[in-house]
Specification:
Length: 75
């Protein structure tokens, strides 16, 4: 399960309802929640956040908290 999948599971989100409200297909939502190689686009994250009444910025921070810059860039 992806970070998005875990996030939605914690919130007990109905993916069919999210699909209906956002226009993102159920198959795309399944990809995003179960396939680590599926890349979540910013517009998709924003629409999903709106559909589940989450703050898009906070959702972004939680989903991508493990990302960081590499040390010594440019040296």
């Amino acid at each position: 399960m992806t970070d998005l999948g875990l996030y939605l599971a914690k919130r007990t989100v109905n993916k069919a309802e999210v699909s209906r409200r956002t226009g993102i297909s159920k198959s795309r939502l399944t990809q995003l929640t179960s396939n680590d190689s599926a890349k979540l686009r910013a517009d998709e994250l924003y629409l999903i956040a709106l559909a589940i009444n989450a703050d898009p910025g906070e959702m972004f921070k939680e989903l991508f908290e493990g990302l960081g810059l590499k040390e010594n860039i440019g040296n």
